[in-house]
């Protein structure tokens, strides 16, 4: 019952916000024409707004690619307009106290708002589809006879699906191979809530082209879902010559253990103490943990390096102001006593295919281990 009530309230708020955007657009249209707008134009406007504002939900419900693309782009415009419109309306109201006519103000406000919105969407698309390489150097103190060097490349939150597609995957693999990694890790959210687009596009075939002598390893995130058993999801991912670590540990080098943990949303996952109980302290323990929580617990249980994603750094500003209050480390590198934490803002995106204030990234981690 609570879920139903929440759904109804959410729907009513969404309808009200769409009405606000539609009402603003209608006011701008009226400012550009002298005569009364015909009922046919009014009907077309209402139908178009209804279509685009419901396309995101309909696209996922009917598994329709066109609807999904339209809906995702609508979410980008929807978010930006909700930020810009109140500022525009306040500015127009203040300017009405000048000698400028209301019609003149409405016309210019429409030009500025539409121009700025499309410009920001364009910039957001560029940031989302043009990844950068972020490099960190980490030194782990261990009593080893020689200093070991390991180059890890990490990408998280690809959300492979309709918009983060095969071409985006191929771009990622090309960037990864150019870095000549020893080890490649993907700490969660490989797919976007559904494995079918991943399989249909053959993205596993693209991942199989990654060159990493020590292998490619995956831990699952909260969006790595499938309508069937979790085993089917793991099998589909592993067709790409990768290994899914599902509360498992594997020795990637003689003195280096890699642990992949189930996501925080999985109630059946093991705690960190159980996963590390058989690992000697003189070994280097690297943990793939999709959501960067409980850094103190990881440190207390002998984890040397924890690699995470999930936060997207908010993806669209001012989302980063929220993530900074939720996570001890919401992006980048942080050292907590003997624990090293690195969080990626992600290679893909969720919802609207834009990034503002953030950039799609691949993370290069140069690890040295020794005294």
What this model shows, in words?
This protein is an alpha/beta fold. It has two domains: 2-127, no CATH class; 132-370, 4-Layer Sandwich (Purple Acid Phosphatase, chain A, domain 2), CATH 3.60.21.10. The protein has eleven helices and twelve strands. It has helices at residues 2-31, 39-62, 65-95, 102-129, 166-178, 196-200, 203-207, 230-238, 272-276, 295-300, 319-326, and strands spanning 132-141, 148-154, 183-187, 216-219, 243-244, 248-253, 256-260, 284-288, 305-308, 332-336, 339-343, 361-370. The longest helix is centred in the first third of the chain and has 31 residues, at 65-95. The mean pLDDT is 94.
Residues in helix, %: 40-55%
CATH superfamily of the largest domain: Metallo-dependent phosphatases
What is the mean predicted local confidence, pLDDT? 94
CATH architecture level-2 label of the largest domain: 4-Layer Sandwich
Order of helices and strands: HHHHEEHEHHEHEEEHEHEHEEE
Please report the total strand number as a whole number.
Answer: 12
Q: Could you give the distance between the termini?
A: 59 Å
Uncertain ranges: none
The largest beta-sheet arranges its strands as: 1-12-2-3-4-5
CATH class of the largest domain: Alpha Beta
Main sheet, how many strands, which sense, barrel? 6 strands, mixed
Kindly give the count of domains: 2
Q: Return the structural class.
A: alpha/beta
What's the alpha carbon Rg, rounded to whole Å?
24 Å
| Net shape | elongated
Determine the CATH topology of the largest domain.
Purple Acid Phosphatase, chain A, domain 2
């Amino acid at each position: 019952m609570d879920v139903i009530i929440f759904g109804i309230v959410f729907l009513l708020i969404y309808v009200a916000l769409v009405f606000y955007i539609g009402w603003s657009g209608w006011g701008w249209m009226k400012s550009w024409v002298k005569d009364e707008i015909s009922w046919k134009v009014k009907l077309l406007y209402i139908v178009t707004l209804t279509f685009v504002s419901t396309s995101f939900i309909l696209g996922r419900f009917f598994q329709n690619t066109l609807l999904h693309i339209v809906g995702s782009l609508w979410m980008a415009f929807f978010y930006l307009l909700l930020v810009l419109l109140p500022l525009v309306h306040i500015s127009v109201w203040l300017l009405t106290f000048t000698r400028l006519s209301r019609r003149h103000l409405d016309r210019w406000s429409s030009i500025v708002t539409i121009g700025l919105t499309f410009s920001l969407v364009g910039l957001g698309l560029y940031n989302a589809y043009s990844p950068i390489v972020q490099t960190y150097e980490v030194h782990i103190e261990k009593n080893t006879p020689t200093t070991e060097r390991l180059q890890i490349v990490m990408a998280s939150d690809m959300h492979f699906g309709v918009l983060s597609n095969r071409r985006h995957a191929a771009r990622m693999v090309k960037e990864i191979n150019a870095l000549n990694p020893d080890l490649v890790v993907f700490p969660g959210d490989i797919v976007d809530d559904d494995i079918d687009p991943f399989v249909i596009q053959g993205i596993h075939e693209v991942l199989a082209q990654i060159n990493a002598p020590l292998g490619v390893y995956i831990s699952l995130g909260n969006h790595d879902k499938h309508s069937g058993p979790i085993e089917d999801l793991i099998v589909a991912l592993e067709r790409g010559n990768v290994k899914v670590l599902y509360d498992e540990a594997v020795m990637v080098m003689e003195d280096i253990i890699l642990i992949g943990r189930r996501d925080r949303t999985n109630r059946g996952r093991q705690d960190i103490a159980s996963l590390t109980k058989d690992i000697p302290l003189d070994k280097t323990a690297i943990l793939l943990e999709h959501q960067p929580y409980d850094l103190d617990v990881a440190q207390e249980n002998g984890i040397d390096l924890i690699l995470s994603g999930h936060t997207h750094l908010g993806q669209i500003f001012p989302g980063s102001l929220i993530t900074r209050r939720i996570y001890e480390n919401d992006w980048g590198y942080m050292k907590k006593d003997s624990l090293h934490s690195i969080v990626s803002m992600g290679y893909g995106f969720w919802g609207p295919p834009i990034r503002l204030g953030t950039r799609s990234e691949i993370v290069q981690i140069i690890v040295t281990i020794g005294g």
